[in-house]
Amino acid sequence: MPGKTFQPDLDVFNVLSVILGGGRGTRLFPLTQDRAKPAVPLAGKYRIVDIPISNCLNSGYRRIYLLTQFNSASLHRHISQSYKFDHFSNSFVEILAAEQTLTDTSWYQGTADAVRKNLIHFQNSPFYFMLILSGDQLYRMDYRKLLMQHYQSKADVTVATIPVTRKDVPGFGIMRMAEDFQVTEFVEKPKDSKVQDAFRLEKEWYPKLHIAGEEELFLASMGIYVFNREALFQMLDNDLQDFGKDIIPCVLKDYRVCSYVYQGAWADIGTIRAYFDCSIDLTSGNPRFTFFDMAAPVFTRARFLPASRINAGAIEQSLISDGCILNRAAISQSMLGIRSLVGEGSRLHRVVVMGSDYYETEASARRNEAEGKPRIGIGQNTRIENAIIDKNARIGDNCVISPDGKTGDVDHPLYYIRDGIVIIPKNGVVPNYTVI
């Protein structure tokens, strides 16, 4: 019968982790114009994909597959340069890119389809449980607690959930659960208020989940799943494409599906607004998520950059990454990525600067200036607010970049505006005296 063919312990080698990162990332455009969504820079020196990988490593799960298909070159490079294990362990972080076969030439059609198309690879790995993770979220979770509840509740599938308010309900799969955490009903992104009412978290759950207050809450799927091996193979023996929309609602009657309620800091950073707000929150004195927890650090590529140099200036509530050079600039509520250069007299307020992949040589700078292009970085006496500056951007002197007075989305040769945020794309050029 489904999922009841073994009684394993929770040895880490029984768990295979799979991170889903194959979508186009259209909601994060133009940050995903030249890179996969999991490769988008985060918090100055990391990539989004570092979050689920670090959670796996901190939980002791060191066999990790990453599924990709769009603009994956920089993601491949980051993974190969960041996650190296010794030759004497069964540890790996391996990318599985979408591929054509003699029987199937299509791309991934959804989360379930992506896993289904790679079952031939997964079947070669011994595992009892598959941990399936999303590649566009910011959170810190000990997956061992999730696996322990899954095992103790004798579930075939466990869905990680988080309490959300009514305004967030239309963006999530919402569920109801019985006293033993078994999911009894599931609906994907309900818009109708009457349907939402039926899925309101009952107040009897609040003491059990240590929820304070009386705020109306709903249980939303985080897109994190644990499957028993045999149950997974059986559930994917069809043409259904997505776990949340298709698989989970269909298996509630025949399989034991449980909810693991997570209540830590969590953010879906799959849109420009969510990415920007989350980044700015990281600069606050008390951010919802912290990278300073050394009990469960976030890992990334070690670059061996010099310490940042600040040649005077005013810096308030900001994060400055490695290898930056700041010349008498005023920076507030902003985040500067690696190798960021800011000229004298410039002012940055609520700006996410992703930095640069390299330091420009004097010869290169002179050559670009002869062609009318500024040097890499931000020039002198430039004012920027509520903006994202992607990598290797060249912003000239005496520029003004702000979304004030602009409505709706804008696609311009020099910039984009999404969700009220100005984005200067990767390798973008903003000439001297430009006003946006």
CATH A-level architecture of the largest domain: Alpha-Beta Complex
Radius of gyration, in Å, reads: 23 Å
Tell me the CATH topology of the largest domain: Spore Coat Polysaccharide Biosynthesis Protein SpsA, Chain A
Oligomer: single chain
Main sheet properties: 11 strands, mixed
Global mean pLDDT: 92
Instruction: Give the count of helical stretches.
Output: 11
Structural class: alpha/beta
Give helix % range.
10-25%
CATH class type of the largest domain: Alpha Beta
Q: Report the sheet-strand fraction.
A: 25-35%
The CATH superfamily name of the largest domain is Spore Coat Polysaccharide Biosynthesis Protein SpsA, Chain A
N→C terminal distance? 63 Å
- The total beta strand count reads 27
Spans of 5+ residues with little confidence (pLDDT < 50)? 1-7
User: What's the shape?
Assistant: globular
